[in-house]
Write a structure and sequence with these properties.
Layout: H1 26-40, E1 45-50, H2 56-69, E2 73-77, H3 84-94, H4 104-120, E3 125-129, H5 137-146, E4 150-151, E5 154-155, E6 157-163, H6 166-171, H7 177-182, E7 183-189, H8 194-207, H9 218-228, H10 232-248, H11 256-265, E8 274-276, E9 282-284, H12 288-291
Parallel strand pairs: 1-6, 1-7, 2-3, 3-6
Antiparallel strand pairs: 4-5, 8-9
Helix pairs in contact: 1-2, 3-4, 10-11
Bound molecules: adenosine-5'-triphosphate and magnesium ion (MG).
Adenosine-5'-triphosphate (ATP) binds at residues 15-18, 21-23, 25, 28, 50, 52-58, 164, 232-233, 236.
Length: 298
C-alpha cells in the first residue's frame, strides 16, 4: 500500500518466512552452517530451537533451498500435530515413495530403498520437522527409530527437528534418553541485539529497493529494538505498521510518537514499559515483575 510512496519495489516487512529477505545475523549464520554441516556430515540428528518468531522456519526455508540446489532428497513436515500413521504418510508423499502410503511397512521398505540408493550415489536424504515441540511421544519414538538407519559411512537419514524452547525440555524427558543421546548438534536462535536489529531493518529495506534508509531515525530504531526485544517477527509487524502510519500522515520519516500509537494499537507490551494510570499518573508495566531485568536484547 505504501510501497510507491516510499519508493519501494517490494513489501519490506511481510510476515512470511521468505529466504530472499534472509539477514545473516551471526546466530542465524551459525545455525544454518550447523544444519548444513549436520546434513553433509551425515550426523543424524540436529535440533534447532528458538523463541517464537526468532526465524526458525525462515532458516529451514533456507536449508530447503540449499537441499534443492544440491539435489538432496528431503521431506519437510510443517504440521507436527499428527499421528504416527499420518507421519509415515506425509514422509511418503514428500519423498514421492512409490508404495501404499497408508501402510507403514511399505513406506518403511520404500524409504529404506531410497536411502540405500542415495547412499550408493554418495548422497543422503533429510527429514525436516518444523514445530517439533508439538510432536506426540509416539511420533517422536518413530522419529528416533528412523534415525537408527545407518550404513558404515554414517546415518542414512538426516533428521532436523526445529521448535520452540519446549522442544529442548521435551527431549530432556527420561523416556527420550535414547533419542537425546543421538543428537549430535543443537543450535539456538537468540533474539537480535540492538546493532543487529538496526542492520536487520536496514537490510530488509535495502532488499525492498530503499538503498539508504532515512525513514527510521536513530531514536526510532532504538525504541523499535527495545519494544520488540529483538524478535524479528515483532520488528516486522512494528515496522510495517509504522510505515503505514507515516504514509497515512504523508510523512517520509517516522517518529517515536507514531511508534507509541502503533504499539498501543498492537497492544504491545515490553519490559520497562510505562502506562497511563487512571488519574493520568504514569505506572510501571505490571509485566516488569515477570520479565525481570536484563532480558536478552532488552
Ligand atoms: N534472519 C532473518 N532474516 C530475515 N527475516 C527473518 C529472519 N529471522 C526471522 N525473520 C522474519 O521474522 C518473521 C518470523 O520468522 P519465522 O516465521 O521464521 O519465525 P519462527 O521462529 O519460525 O516463529 P514460530 O516460533 O512462531 O514458528 C518472518 O517474517 C521472517 O521473515
Ligand atoms: Mg515457525
Amino acid at each position: 500500500m505504501y510501497n510507491a510512496f516510499f519508493g519501494l519495489t517490494a513489501s519490506p516487512f511481510t510476515l512470511s518466512p521468505d529466504p530472499n529477505f534472509f539477514y545473516r545475523s551471526p546466530q542465524h549464520e551459525e545455525a544454518l552452517a550447523n544444519l548444513i554441516y549436520g546434513v553433509q556430515g551425515r550426523k543424524g540428528f540436529v535440533v534447532l530451537t528458538g523463541e517464537v518468531g526468532t526465524g526458525k522456519t525462515t532458516l529451514l526455508e533456507c536449508l530447503r533451498d540449499y537441499l534443492a540446489y544440491q539435489r538432496i532428497e528431503f521431506a519437510f513436515l510443517f504440521n507436527s500435530r499428527i499421528t504416527p500413521a499420518e507421519f509415515f504418510e506425509m514422509i511418503a508423499y514428500d519423498l514421492d515413495l512409490k508404495c501404499n502410503r497408508s501402510s507403514k511397512t511399505e513406506v518403511l521398505f520404500a524409504l529404506n530403498q531410497l536411502l540405500l540408493q542415495q547412499a550408493h550415489v554418495g548422497s543422503t536424504a533429510v527429514l525436516i520437522v518444523d514445530e517439533a515441540h508439538n510432536l506426540e511421544w509416539d511420533v517422536l519414538e518413530e522419529v528416533r527409530l528412523l534415525g537408527n538407519l545407518e550404513s558404515r559411512q554414517g546415518k542414512l537419514l538426516q533428521i532436523v527437528l526445529a521448535g520452540q524452547p519446549e522442544l529442548d525440555r521435551k527431549l530432556d524427558a527420561p523416556n527420550l534418553r535414547q533419542l537425546r543421546q543421538r543428537i549430535v548438534l543443537r543450535c539456538n536462535l537468540r533474539p537480535f541485539d540492538e546493532q543487529q536489529t538496526i542492520e536487520y531493518i536496514t537490510a530488509r529495506l535495502e532488499k525492498a529497493g530503499m538503498r539508504q534508509q532515512t525513514v527510521f531515525p536513530p531514536e526510532v530504531l532504538a525504541e523499535i529494538h527495545r519494544r520488540s526485544q529483538g524478535i524479528p517477527r515483532l520488528i516486522n509487524a512494528i515496522c510495517d505498521n509504522l510505515l503505514l502510519t507515516a504514509f497515512a500522515l504523508e510523512s517520509k520519516v517516522t517518529t517515536v510518537e507514531m511508534l507509541d500509537e502503533v504499539c498501543a494499537d498492537m497492544r504491545l507490551e515490553w519490559p520497562g514499559m510505562r502506562r497511563r494510570g487512571p488519574g493520568g499518573t504514569v505506572e510501571p508495566f505490571p509485566g516488569d515483575r515477570l520479565y525481570g531485568r536484563g532480558l536478552p536484547g532488552s
